[in-house]
Design goal:
Blueprint (H helix, E strand, L loop, with lengths): L1 H5 L4 H5 L3 H31 L14 H21 L3 H25 L4 H25 L9 H10 L1 H29 L1 H39 L1 H38 L4 H23 L1 H5 L3 H25 L2 H28 L6
Helix pairs in contact: 3-4, 4-6, 5-6, 8-9, 8-13, 9-10, 9-11, 10-11, 11-14, 13-14
């Protein structure tokens, strides 16, 4: 729902040519978030008064949803804004704060409030991060003094970027569904055991990508968006350099899992996660490519060819779903994970080639 709250317009903040244009778009996004958060609050208020449980949790959990939407949506705006003004120190502070706060407070809340302690800790972490960002945002933007954003101005932003919004929302939807559909299908046919093993593999392999790859991606997004308007040659150069750097760092990060995944998982997590380690030896190839393609996908935003990425993700989603459905009907759970990973690797290689082609041919390097 936080995706809907901004309609993914926050990505355009970094792409604006001037700081004042980026600041104006940030204010428009904030106005949209307030409207969306208020509507979500009214909806969750109804669900609360009708005492509809949030899955197995008490109804009051519904009231935490608008708080999380409001906070997380604002944070996405503030991240884009600070990326635009090159305030990388604040972005790093947020990520460290969020990770440490949720980790430490989550353990404490989980101990005293076993049923919903982690949820409350997550919400408190989001809202605290919002306050941190909001304080710095107001200091950096007060000099522009835009005033109140009218509905006419908001409508104008939607009209000017309607093609982008359609592609971006569709892209985020199919990306999100693609991440979670394996868990649902595996659970339906093989049970929760294999889902837990598979999910643990993904969580561990995600660590290098979340800590290193995404940070490099934010730096690339800011610099490349500037170079694209000033010098196509410089843009292509920084894109190829970033691509090669990501591949090298990703190779170093995932090589231990490829050769010693089973031993690493067993040593750190215990014998019960031995199968997760075996999975990691194959899935690491997929995550090596994700390490590169995830941040490099910003090129489609910069070059305003997001529709190409949407169609690739859309087709990939159906290929993955059909192949996975076939595998669960024909293979055992271990073979299913292995063969599904091979399909994901092939699709990710294709995406990396599309990214390179987009850079080299579009800018006439070759």
């Amino acid at each position: 729902m936080s995706i809907m709250a901004t309609f993914r317009i926050e990505h355009l903040i970094v792409l604006e040519k001037t700081i004042i244009e980026a600041a104006y778009l940030s204010e428009i996004c904030k106005k949209i978030i307030k409207i969306f958060s208020f509507l979500s609050f009214l909806l969750t208020l109804i669900l609360y008064f009708f005492a509809i449980p949030f899955f197995s949790q008490p109804p009051f959990i519904w009231l935490l949803i608008p708080i999380s939407i409001f906070s997380l949506s604002h944070i996405t705006i503030f991240l884009s804004w600070n990326n635009k003004i090159k305030n990388y120190k604040l972005i790093s502070t947020y990520k460290v704060f969020q990770a440490v706060f949720v980790g430490v407070v989550g353990v404490l809340f989980g101990f005293f409030l076993k049923d919903y302690g982690l949820i409350i800790a997550y919400i408190i972490g989001l809202f605290s991060s919002f306050l941190l960002f909001n304080f710095n945002y107001k200091k950096s933007i007060k000099k522009f003094n835009f005033g109140y954003a009218s509905f006419k101005e908001i409508r104008g932003v939607f009209i000017d970027n309607k093609k982008y919004i359609k592609s971006s929302l569709g892209l985020e939807f199919f990306n999100t569904v693609s991440k979670y559909i394996p868990n649902f299908i595996l659970n339906a046919y093989y049970g929760t055991g294999i889902v837990g093993v598979y999910d643990m593999t993904l969580k561990v392999l995600n660590i290098p990508k979340n800590i290193i790859s995404l940070n490099i991606g934010e730096l690339y997004y800011q610099k490349a968006s500037v170079f694209y308007h000033k010098s196509k040659e410089s843009f292509s150069k920084i894109t190829i350099q970033t691509f090669c750097t990501l591949f090298l760092i990703g190779f170093i990060s995932y090589l231990p899992f490829i050769f010693f995944g089973k031993e690493l998982f067993t040593f750190v997590l215990g014998d019960k996660w031995k199968l997760s380690g075996e999975f990691s030896e194959v899935i690491a190839f997929w995550f090596l490519l994700l390490f590169v393609s995830s941040p490099m996908a910003y090129i489609f935003y910069i070059m305003k060819t997001l529709k190409k990425l949407f169609w690739f993700i859309f087709i990939s989603f159906f290929i993955k779903s059909i192949v996975l459905w076939y595998l669960v009907l024909q293979k055992n759970e271990i073979d299913t994970v292995y063969y599904y990973t091979i399909i994901c690797v092939v699709l990710e290689i294709i995406l990396c080639l599309i990214i390179l082609k987009q850079t080299l041919y579009k800018n006439k390097i070759i």
